[in-house]
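I'll show a typical protein example:
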Amino acid sequence: MVFNPSIILGYLLFYCPVASNDILQHPRLNVTLIVTSASNDGLGVTMTNTTKPLTNTEVKQAKPKAKEYNLADGHGLYLRVKPSGTKLWIFNYLRPFTKKRANLGLGIFPDISLADARVEAQKFKGLLAKEIDPKEYRIEQAWKDEKAHTNTFEHVAEKWLKLKESKVSNSYYKKISSRLELHVFPRIGKLPLHKINAVDTIEALDPLAKQGKLETLDNICGWINEVMVYSVNTGLVHSNPLSNIKKAFNSPKSTPLPALKPDELPELMIALNKASIKLVTRCLLEWQLHTMVRPAEAAGARWEEIDLKNSLWEIPENRMKGGKPHNVPLSPQALSLLDILKPFSRQREFIFPGDRNPRKSANSQTANMALKRMGFQGRQVAHGLRALASTTLNEQGFDKDVVEIALAHVDQNAIRAAYNRAEYLERRRVMMCWWSDHIEQAATGKLSLSSNVAFLNARGR
């Protein structure tokens, strides 16, 4: 592009001939010119007028003509009037680096007023002073806005859940996802992350507090914060405004799960022998009692997890609450339970097949329902069998660390955890065998299935 020099008001002006009514900025004076005519006289401009700012009346009364024309307001802003009568605000500027002229639409009048158009034009002039192209800036902002509105809380939570799924047990993953879908997504799920705030979130969770579901509420607050921390770490937001929402609610009271005292174990075994329950359910209850695992871990046991050669049950990390694999030394009594179940489920995936659908595992609540029918409601729950075992073993003087690892309580000290895995497996095997023997002794008259040879023979072992 060739520029012709011209002397105006004693200053050198560089000008490239443009169409009539286009805008011309003086490079050194705060003066805006509008070209009303152009000729090929070697200077490029034969007539110029100083532009005065538009008034609201002039903008409103601007009439359409046969051809579109521009009304300059100064500082790169002008109103383009089309033959159809449409009036458009245009910002005309010199693009950084390329030095080519460009027009940027600011909107239609009267949707965008004269005052609003001037504010936008001034903002773009500020960008130009920093060598930022307003058009490129607008495209980038539009992309950021679209991304921000696409990244709703629910959308990001689903990404977080995919990561969480590989770190927790299937039952715990289902618990998290179902709680979020029921209590969180309907209220704040569609909100973009940048619009998430503590006030709205607390209001969304308040119904749980009013219902007294404080433990559920406490868990949900923790999961919500994990989603927000994930959002910060992945650059979707700069900060987490929900880090302290737990403080807006009462903390749940820690209530121990109902569990029998150690000297009440014989009562449980007698009731189990007399109970009118299905064989698989009884085996499940005894299996959980002997192995000290959680209800979901017991109900979901697979034959492929059993190492008969080494008398070991290897539970993979995706089935454990703590997200770490857990090995359970199997006592002779536990192995006897497997012998009982072989005719019923050895050809299937799950050791304890579901009653209605044997292709699926037994429900994690099956043991709980059985205990209720046996008359232990309020006294013993399936998860509480672990407490019964823990109390008994600690009272008998077994190493507390060995007991805790047998219960799969995660050791936070990584070095110590590695040491425990190496040394304590055999010590756990001794302890588990003692515990199974103790269960047998508690079962007056050998009422435990795991020791009932006559029962096994009757079943054609």
